Amino acid sequence: MQIKSIARLSALLLPLFLAAPVLAQGLAPPPGGFGPDAFLVDAGNGNLEGVQKALNGGKNPNEVDKLDGTSALIAAAKGNHVNIMEVLIRDRVLVDLKDKSGNTALNWAAERGNIDAVKVLLDAGADPNTIDRSGNTPLIKAAKIGNVDILKLLVTTKKVDLKRGDFTGVTALEWAERNRQTATVRYLRDAGG
Question: Is the pTM of this model over 0.90?
Fold first, then answer.
């Protein structure tokens, strides 16, 4: 009985094992397959040539991964691939497109401390008050990790709501206090948070 179960499991896992080297190279899985296509993989890996080739071939820059809703802009922002973000923005990508967790590219860039990506997104008109499914804004995400430089960029937009809390009511200042981010606490207090 156990041998049949192992054989069935092996039959299911073998195609995934064989596909792993292809997926690791950033190539798309077969049509109808699982996982992101080459365009999204290229954006997330910083492959500018691959992204440009796809866009020149008519690829929709706002296409999202079917599993998690990640767009090319979100993938590029996560990896701080500013050159790819700029190409996508020039191609009229939607800067405030959200993935399935409610995060925009700006949310991800702030959470990961990618200051260059934050700057590009703000310059492109990204909403600094956007919230994820937990109510976290880019300001809250930057405060949690203690990134004062990102906080400064967000605050200088004059659009960010310093008093806004997440869905539990906790503000950026309160998160910074909880996480013992001394410089962040000082900056937010001085900014009026």
Answer: no
